[in-house]
Write a structure and sequence with these properties.
By secondary structure, the chain is mostly helical. It has helices spanning 15-49, 56-142.
Length: 147
């Protein structure tokens, strides 16, 4: 008879975890508000730049500034990408590689165990079954055993 699975109660959150969650929510709210403000400013700027009285050199200068800001954002994103790539390489070298080595050792151990069992348990049993089958057939041919 099997025992039913036991379920553990969820661990209560610590005050530090609750405070960290609140900080993450606040940060997310500020990021969303910042994005909305930037989009509103961008929409307003586009509206005023599309007015017929706006000189083209002003439009050109604003687009040069936008391209410069965009290149700064791309540079920051590349730096973040490089840092994340470095942490991934560190994770692969220091955590995944030892796990793979331990798994390989376990598989080799199991392979050796399977070979040992094959040679010392299965092979003699198969031979014994073969001998018994031959003896049974010989007794059938001699008429001592019925089919």
């Amino acid at each position: 008879m099997t025992t039913p699975p036991t379920y553990s109660e969820p661990t209560p959150r610590t005050p530090e975890q609750i405070e960290q969650e609140k900080q993450m929510k606040r940060l997310m709210i500020w990021v969303i508000v910042g994005a909305v403000v930037v989009l509103a400013l961008l929409g307003t700027a586009i509206f005023f730049l599309l007015q017929p009285a706006t000189p083209t050199d002003r439009i050109r200068d604003i687009f040069i500034i936008i391209v410069a800001l965009e290149s700064l954002v791309i540079g920051v994103a590349l730096i973040v990408l490089i840092v994340q790539l470095a942490s991934l390489i560190n994770l692969l070298q220091n955590e995944v590689r030892p796990i793979l080595k331990a798994t390989s050792d376990t598989v080799n151990n199991l392979r050796g165990t399977a070979e040992f069992l094959g040679e010392n348990v299965v092979e003699p049993v198969v031979k014994l079954n073969g001998y018994l089958a031959g003896l049974y057939r010989m007794l059938e041919l001699m008429g001592l055993k019925k089919k």
